[in-house]
Specification:
Number of domains: 2
Shape: globular
Number of helices: 13
CATH class of the largest domain: Alpha Beta
Strand order of the largest sheet: 3-2-1-6-7-9-8-10-11
Order of helices and strands: HEHEHEHEEEHEHHHHEEHEEHEHHEE
Largest sheet: 9 strands, mixed
Helix content: 25-40%
Number of strands: 14
CATH superfamily of the largest domain: Vaccinia Virus protein VP39
Strand content: 15-25%
Structural class: alpha/beta
Length: 362
């Protein structure tokens, strides 16, 4: 969608899906870190907006704040919120939304106004550094386009332990302006390289789409071990935007996949895992287990692997959740295509609770 001009605007259906994913993930991320060994955590909303839509629905900064306020027992860590909004009217509206809530002493909310995400982050960076490291951070970077979200900042966040980014890659807008001569410096900044130029000359729209997607994915991998992308399609069944999630924590990847698979169990929205063009998987209530089975067989045919190895393969290398593989193994064992070679005495066939159990794929 084009950048709205009003202070508040109508909530788009795909934005609602994006926010549902964000809420579900933050509900896991915050409690894991706050109730763990970290005494401070930071949520950044780099393009915060007014915090509310025309219909009264809450925006992303308030979703994050309400998620943190909703825990029982309450979060014990000091929780910092950095909301960045360039426009005065929207920042004022956001402050009013924050003021409607009673914040505990361990919550600190900063609304930065009149500055870009880059300027705010760089100006406040040292205040969130402890012993040379950025405190555990989740940065939601959701611009109306590509300006103000330089890759240098994204990569700086990812260099620190337990720091993650969730980036809205506005493909429709990017594709429209990617070849404009006035935007060369902005696109160099957004991608962190000028390699995007080779995508402009792609022979067809699909090739250009994949080229730009894969370049940003590749760039994120320079700072993160685990990266997944999710495509949101519009009513014309073409790419509206991609959501890129990047982390160095396997547990984070696990929880993000859980959020994605549960974000729209009603089937109202059409979004897919687009990380691998050969494994394009539509999120829906019932996962496409035959596709997963084919992927597992292709990866392990003629080999032996532990249950733990299989689970990690499914989690890291496919669009599926770590829980989806058990039904696959059960079916393969039943048909004799997978054999357990070190089963514990008394093991019930079709169960895979021992991560060190070895499976041979014939």
């Amino acid at each position: 969608m084009a950048a709205p001009r009003q202070t508040i605007w109508q909530l788009e259906p795909h934005t609602r899906a994006k926010h549902e994913i964000l809420k579900r993930y933050l509900q896991a991320w915050m409690v894991i870190l706050s109730q763990g060994k970290f005494s401070e955590i930071l949520y950044i909303d780099g393009f915060a907006g007014p915090g509310e839509y025309k219909g009264g629905e809450v925006g992303s900064p308030i979703i994050a704040l309400d998620a943190a306020l909703g825990f029982k027992p309450p979060l014990t860590a000091k929780v910092h919120f950095l909301f960045v909004e360039a426009r005065d009217d929207r920042a004022d509206h956001l402050r009013k939304q924050v003021a409607l809530r009673t914040l505990p002493p361990n919550f600190r909310v900063i609304v930065d106004c009149g500055v870009t995400f880059e300027t705010s982050f760089k100006g406040r960076y040292q205040s969130f550094v402890r012993n040379g490291r950025l405190i555990p951070t989740f940065a939601f970077i959701d611009p109306f386009g590509w300006t103000g979200a330089p890759f240098s900042v994204v990569k700086q966040i990812l260099t620190h332990r337990s720091c993650e980014v969730f980036v809205n890659f506005m493909y429709e807008e990017i594709n429209r302006f990617i070849g404009h001569p006035d935007q060369v410096a902005n696109f160099n900044s957004f991608f962190g390289t000028d390699e995007w130029k080779r995508c402009v000359t792609a022979s067809d729209p699909r090739t250009r789409n994949r080229c730009l997607h894969d370049l940003y994915l590749q760039q994120l991998h320079t700072g993160a071990a685990y990266v997944r992308s999710f495509e949101m399609s519009n009513a014309r069944d073409v790419t509206d935007y991609y959501l890129f999630y990047a982390t160095n924590e396997l547990l984070g990847l696990t929880k993000m996949k859980e959020a994605m698979w549960k974000a729209d169990e009603s089937g109202e929205f059409r979004f897919s895992d687009a990380t691998d063009p050969n494994q394009f998987v539509l999120f829906k209530k019932a996962p496409d287990l035959p596709a997963l089975q084919a992927g597992v067989i292709a990866a392990f045919s003629g080999k032996e692997a532990s249950v733990d190895d299989i689970e990690k393969f499914v989690l890291v290398e496919t669009a599926f959740r770590e829980t989806h593989y058990k039904g696959i193994l059960k079916a393969l064992e039943r048909t004799g295509k997978a054999k357990i070679i070190n089963a514990a005495p008394g093991r019930k066939k079709g169960t895979f609770s021992d991560p060190q159990m070895i499976v041979r794929f014939d």
